[in-house]
Specification:
Layout (H helix, E strand, L loop, with lengths): L1 H11 L13 E2 L2 E9 L7 E10 L5 E7 L3 E12 L2 E6 L3 E3 L4 E3 L5 E8 L8 E8 L3 E10 L14 E2 L3
Parallel strand pairs: 2-11, 6-12
Antiparallel strand pairs: 1-2, 2-3, 3-8, 3-9, 4-7, 4-10, 5-6, 5-9, 10-11
Bound molecules: copper (II) ion (CU).
């Protein structure tokens, strides 16, 4: 019900919800652009998605959680180096200050798709719903690109999940 209200308010205000590209979603000043994921092997149980969040509003917002029909769970992860070993840790949330852009890129941050229901195949798209503190739910379409796309490998040798 709240989502419907938020969407209705967005549509009712000229100047908002004017994005036409399929990859962009706008609600309360938040836009999500260039969402992509890496293709996975047939055996992969996890995948990673990346996107750019632009806060065009005058107030800060926070990305609180995410979900996708492509996997059992979707978790925001940050990549850190610990004694020369790349590790990833879940993030509680992600702040997007007004007028700033936050980009999830390999080697820094990603949306971890845990328990993939099917391999992510090159050229396919799947949806992810991002839940923001103020902007509410924003559905994005994630395009699957080549396994090695991006600047750094997601699955680096020695990369491991820290216990939660
Ligand atoms: Cu991860």
């Amino acid at each position: 019900m709240l989502l419907i209200l938020v969407l209705w308010l967005g549509l009712a205000q000229p100047g908002l919800a004017q994005s036409s590209t399929p990859n962009a979603a706008t609600a309360a000043g938040i836009a999500v652009e260039h969402a992509w994921a890496r293709a996975t092997t047939a055996a992969a149980k996890t995948g990673a998605a990346y996107f750019t969040i632009v806060n065009k509003g005058t107030a800060g917002d926070r990305l609180l959680s995410a979900s996708s029909p492509a996997s059992d769970r979707a978790q925001l992860h940050v990549t850190i180096e610990d004694h020369g070993v790349m590790k990833m840790r879940p993030m509680a949330d992600l702040e997007i200050k007004p007028g700033t852009t936050v980009t999830l890129v390999p080697g820094r941050m990603h949306l971890m798709l845990i328990g993939l229901k099917a391999p992510l195949k090159l050229g396919e798209t799947f949806s992810v719903t991002l839940t923001f503190e103020k902007a509410g739910s924003v559905e994005i379409q994630v395009k699957v690109e080549k396994p090695g796309a991006g600047s750094m490998e997601h699955s680096m040798p020695g990369m491991q999940m820290s216990p939660q």
